[in-house]
Amino acid sequence: MNTMLEPLLLPNQVDLSENDRRTAVAKLDRAVRKGTLTPPQAGDRQDLLLEARTRGDLHQVFDGMADALPPRGLSVALRAVSAVWLLTCVVQFVIWVVLAAFGHFDWPWWLWSDIGLGLVVAIVWWTNESYYRKTDVLVTR
């Protein structure tokens, strides 16, 4: 899939970056410093982190840790809102081109809804992405 659309449509299948791994290690270290994870537990989770390839694999690493990853509902919402936005963009653009082909060339009226929906997608994406950037998490076990 296109690397630009993958974070929007398949957020859990995005490859882990070095920054994602550093942030995950910082979350585990912070949990050890707070005393919510023991060093051996954190070591086991770091071993899982080394094997993790995608952001979806982090669910196993952070099992039982609240706010370490975005809720599944947020990931589903990101996928749904992004798909609706992309479909709307394509359909409106095709209609605009067809109208222009028949002599009804008008200013790009479809930009208003595309920009508005794009803003909603950006807000949901930013919220989803913020879970991968923060280092303070809670352990619920």
Walk me through this protein's architecture.
The protein has 141 residues and is an all-alpha fold. The protein has helices at residues 6-9, 18-34, 39-51, 58-61, 72-101, 110-133, and strands spanning 65-66, 138-139. Strands 1-2 form a two-stranded antiparallel ribbon.
Descriptive tags:
141 residues; single chain; mainly alpha
Question: Can you describe this structure in just a few lines?
Answer:
The chain is an all-alpha fold and 141 residues long. Helix content is 65%, strand content 3%. The protein has helices at 6-9, 18-34, 39-51, 58-61, 72-101, 110-133, and strands spanning 65-66, 138-139.
Distance between the termini: 37 Å
Shape: elongated
Strand order, biggest sheet? Answer: 1-2
Give the overall average pLDDT: 87
Structural class: mainly alpha
Radius of gyration: 20 Å
Helix content: 55-70%
Major sheet summary line: 2 strands, antiparallel
What is the count of DSSP helices, taking H or I runs of 4+ residues? 6
Percent of residues in β-strands: under 5%
- Series of secondary-structure elements, N-terminal to C-terminal: HHHHEHHE
pLDDT under 50 segments (min length 5)? none
List the helices and strands and how they pair.
Elements: H1 6-9, H2 18-34, H3 39-51, H4 58-61, E1 65-66, H5 72-101, H6 110-133, E2 138-139
Antiparallel strand pairs: 1-2
Helix pairs in contact: 2-3, 5-6
